[in-house]
Amino acid sequence: MALKPDRDYNAMDDISYFWTDTAATVEKGGCASLVTAGSGVSLDDTNNVVEYAADPSGAVPKGVMLADVAVYTPTTRFHRNFDNGEVLPGEKVCLIRKGWVVTDMITGTPTAGGDAYLGVSGYFATEMPSGSYSVVVGKFETTADPDGFVKVFVDL
Predict the structure, then answer these.
(1) Residue 43 domain flag
(2) Does residue 56 sit within a domain?
(3) Whose CA is closest to 68, among 90, 46, 88?
(4) DSSP state of 122
(5) pTM check: above 0.85
């Protein structure tokens, strides 16, 4: 689990982006970045695509993932379990744009009040990755608990 259920985002979520990467299962709780963008309102435009950026240099963060993305399975052969909160590649994902979450997708040792940068593969980094330019996506509200979970305030 990469995201605990305690969170507050006051309806500042976004469901206008698709996840198309089929490489592996993706855990919720990381910061997704823009791959391609649609034009106009683009609410149902399949060109609106996000992913966990392998290199945060120059990436445009769009929000914290609220659902796991499962490895593609043919839905004609298996019954979908809509209760587990998973989405399949090619479906829309829900992103938190402003609010706080408790996640373990952290690199480094966070300090309360410290900046949270967009890190490698969607992780929140305690400092800007060396050799690249990354943006501040929020603030660490707490230090890590014994299980490695940290409260992060996100403001995108």
Answers:
(1) yes
(2) yes
(3) 88
(4) G
(5) yes
- The pLDDT tens digits for 125-156 are 998 877 677 789 999 999 999 999 999 999 98
Residue 127 in domain: yes
Beta bridge partners of residue 154, listed in sequence order: 99, 138
Residue 84: left if φ>0, alpha if ψ -120 to 50, beta else—which one? alpha
* Cα–chain center distance at 85: 15
Distance CA 18, CA 49 (A): 5
Q: Collapse the DSSP code of 131 into the 3-class scheme (helix H, G, I; strand E, B; otherwise coil) and give the result.
A: coil
Strands 124-125 and 136-140: unpaired
- Residues comprising the chain, all counted: 156
Question: In three state form, how does the secondary structure of 49-91 look?
Answer: EEECCCCCCCCCEEEEECCCECCCCCCCCCCCCHHHCCECCCC
CATH code: domain of residue 124: 2.40.300
Alpha-carbon distance of 50 to 31, in angstroms, equals 10
Q: How many distinct structural domains can be found in the chain? A: 1
Domain range for residue 28? 13-155
- For residue 144, being part of any structural domain is answered with yes
* Residue 150, token pair as written in the block: 């940290």
| Contact by Cβ (8 Å): 24, 2 | no
